[in-house]
Amino acid sequence: MHATRLFRSPVSVSRRVVGGVLLALSLLAADASLAAGDGPSLREALQERVALLREGRLAVGGQPILSRNVLPALYEGGGFEPCWTDRERLRALVAAIDGIAADGLDPADYHAAELHRRLETRGAATAADSADLDLLASDALVLAIYHLRAGKVDPKTIIPEWNFNPRPQTDEAVAASVRRALSTGRVAEEFDAARPDHWMYGRGRELLAAYRAMAAAGGWPSVPAGPSLKPGATDARVPALRARLAAEGDYRGPASEATVYDEPLVAAAKSFQERHLLEPDGVIGPAALKELNVSAERRVSQIRVNLERARWVLHEIGNEDHVLVDIAGYGVRYMHDRKPVWQSRAIVGQPFRQTPAFRAEIQFVVFNPTWTVPPTILANDILPQMRAGKNVLAKKHLKVIDNQGRVIDPASLHWANYTGRNFPYQLRQDPGDDNALGRVKIMFPNPHLVYLHDTPSKSLFDKDLRHFSSGCIRVEKPRELAEIVLADPDNWNKATIDATIDKGETRTVNLKKRIPVLLIYWTVDQDAAGRAMFKPDVYGQDAVLKAALDKRAPVAR
Questions:
Q1: Residue of 276, 322, 453, 467 with catalytic role
Q2: What separation in angstroms does the CA of 411 have from each of 131, 185, 383, 394, 427?
Q3: What domains appear along the chain, each with residue ranges and CATH number?
Q4: The whole model's pTM is what?
Q5: 83 classed as catalytic
């Protein structure tokens, strides 16, 4: 379970929230006579079980009760009155839990099978059985609402640098949602309210349903290996390609066994390539063939993983303007009213120097920046080459600067004596066309020393897979982004920005208003036409998150 005060702290629920829940429980007390067994007997059974729950020793039908602090607080404060004496309310809960599969979550994590079994036998239940069912249902409700609001997996267990806030006031909101569900019986509505209120989440659920249907129908045919298939060619694999492209709707023409790779099929292949961030040239080479032969089941898993990521972050994305760095999609977008109004191709970190996922605020822009070699590049790239006698400083036009700001002759240093730990100087590159940061740097101070910047290596933006940096994000159109974030057209428009850069002098300009920047690893998306997009998992994070998502919810301590 996602690490949170809701489950981990004995005092996690405020008195105000507990009071509200107690009021709801008191409203339910009138229904207690409907429970199996007499009232005092059922209350005693609940009291015994809550005591065991406090000690972390309660399981029902082999299902551990995970909410070890919230549920005891609810039942203790309510005089151990049962919460689920209304059969229709209980049926509504079970139906909502069954429906949670549409979110990519597993109903088994919320005691679905045991709830079904006990619901059907409830008429002849003893007080002990009724108490077990009551606690099982309450636990399922709390877990499900919490996971829909904040995710099942704690993102920090997957991404150590994660600093996004969970949905505001998650603890109080979950408890309030439980209170409403108990008092009104509108369980499905509380599940809906817990889901991210964002079109991307709704679209993700639609995609999951569609791809599950494809997988259930047998998926799609694979396309046999062979030489690159070019437009106009005749090849025995063309019928398989046609059927494969028809499965996801890229090809909408008639079925055919024709072996000519004709124009309608080429157009469908280009559509597929665009949706998978490949060069849309219609040539079916190794990269396209690899994506074509990813199974429908794997696409289902990919969508499930990204729905979990959505639960981590989409609650935090409101209507305010922000910059979104799409790490897996090699792109940067400026978002207004939750929609992209500007975007640019980008270059992100290599798999062994990954661009981290985190949030920060853009504070200033630097024109004609200098570049100081960061610690990682210094230790892993520059110093090893200098110790090997390769004068990389001259090649990169780097100066050695001491702590007084003086330039030191690199020939005077004994490079064999230095490592990243004991090197007492800075290596700095002056502004210019060859500067590693290009002509623009967009700064959002953070402990990872990551920022958005220009680059002199423009040709790399033409690559399909653009993970070449040491962690920072190179932007293809940095001047346009600088103009947008500065939001000062009178003083900082295209003409004034170009003129400032042409002067060659370093100039720092503070933003009038800081702008959030969100760096997100997101491998399923949709394009402007609403088509499903699947991005390469270059950092291998999908498999790690899927494994965590598939684990049963851990016991809360």
A1: 453
A2: 81, 79, 14, 11, 14
A3: 5-202 (no CATH), 318-370+430-522 (2.40.440.10), 377-428 (no CATH)
A4: 0.86
A5: no
